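Below is how a single chain appears once it has passed through the pipeline. First comes the sequence as given, then the structure the pipeline wrote out for it. We keep one example in the README because the format questions we get most often are answered faster by looking than by reading.
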Amino acid sequence: MIAFVRGQVAGVTLTSAVLEVGGVGLELMCTPGTLAGLRAGQGATLATSMVVREDSLTLFGFADEDEKSIFELVQTASGVGPKVAQAMVAVLSPDDVRRAISSDDVKTLTRVPGIGQKGAQRIILELKDRIGPPVGPGVTPAAASAEPWRDQVHQGLVGLGWSAKDAEKAVDAVAPDAGDAPDVATLLRAALRALSKA
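Resulting structure:
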């Protein structure tokens, strides 16, 4: 898997950029927003996601890791391929995608070419518990910034298959046990016990 590409921009087209890396020109499919920040002859680093098909290997380039993670996550919804996922990060910021999915905002999602009413509802249904809250500037996650353990335990529970709502309840339930130097592994086990009793 190619996580990122760093090199000199050899060329920019309407839909892609070519970065020269060790004498090899790699073509990366990029959104207009990402392409706008690239200049031929200058160095650039792009987060990348490789999509492998029977007849092709396509490298998609992103301005940052957040955009890349949303691109990869939305493809896990049925009916969403790389083209629609790329259109989504082109039209909406990662936080706009998170907000639209977590607040059942079908209208915002249907602004993306290739996503109709039913497609938007399916994306919301399949990703709502996995998308997470907005994380960008101007967002003040209640206690997460002050207590990083909360976020780690929450992510651990969601990763184990619990819904975001249940995970949040379990984190709140074990919060009194956190103390001054919380041990994430112990708190995660306590949260799992709380969930199994519920």
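Residues 184-197 form the longest helix (14 residues).

See the next section for the split statistics.
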